[in-house]
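Structure record:
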Amino acid sequence: MNDFTYAYPTKIYFGKGAAAKHLPAELAKVGKKVMLAYGGGSIKSNGIYDEMMTILKDAGKTVIEFSGIMPNPTYAKVQEGAELARKENVDFILAVGGGSVSDCCKIVASQAVTEEDIWELEFTKHEFPTDAVKLGVVVTASGTGSEQNAGAVITNEDKKIKTGVFGAHADFAILDPQYTMSVPFKQVISGAFDTLSHAMETYFGKPQESFLSDEINEAVMRNTIANIRKLIENPDDLEARSELMWDSAMAENGILKIGKITDFQAHQIEHQLGAYTNCNHGRGLAVIHPVLYRHIYKEGLEKFKRFAVAVWNVSTAGKSDDEIALAGISALEDFIKEAGLPTRFRDMGITYEDVLKPVADSTNITAGCCKQLTREEIFEILQECF
């Protein structure tokens, strides 16, 4: 295990009715002007918007609305939100939605009180913002675990880059599994696979030797798989949704990453694909993971063997090390099909191959992957995914 420092600043309120129970007390700690941030407006049709507005009004808050945050939030949208927060001199941001809303608002919160352009600050000066507008998150779609950390995935359309930007930690997050009932089922499954992806991307990082963080990770992966299956059988299973919501949190609150250099090479490939195609994140990852793993498993053979046995219950009898590892990857691929997720980009409506080379040429190559890929190998992986 590598040396580590761990701190976790976000308070979690988990359970049915958590917003009504706990949001008033949190709002009492902040100033009068609150920016209510959300996405395309689905919270207005499912009752969550009315609930939030009632709580905010009862708390005596002046509400400034920041809406229209898109999936794969853009840097232009971040700047729009930051400008609005500065103009209205907001005291607090309440982000209500899934990972995209949370991601956008984490950077809005920092950019609103940072004179320098955050993109230039982080990617040119390699410095990070130290101040932010206070932020709270109400999660309506789980899977990304965005509310658990300060990282955000933002698409800079001008630069054709989709990547991680660091901003504010939420002071608190409200996780009510009941809210996920209003999300399209396809997106629920996509988000749950993103959770599994986060766990795998951490598990296959360095060092590869198994220790406590990895053993906890195996439990999270098994739990995620089991509850995706329960939800496929019964989409109204609130207990399964509760488990998946906490799986999402556990995958991104840092516990699984303690002592690890994480991999996240599949994420980096999908991010750049998203910069060129705006593909759905979880579904894109479902296509990439098995193909990528068949390219790299030999360099992480012991860990891929453990993954096969501990997560997928692959029998080792009569199998070589390679066969065990490959059986685990095949089990992952079979599960992706079982969950109704795509196995090729064509299944997602990506029908043009001309984007694959620029995606490969601009993908960030991570330090934690068990094999350092070349751009030619990434291009091969993308072609196999097509």
Summary: Residues 11-180 form a domain with the Rossmann fold fold (CATH 3.40.50.1970). The chain has a mean pLDDT of 96.
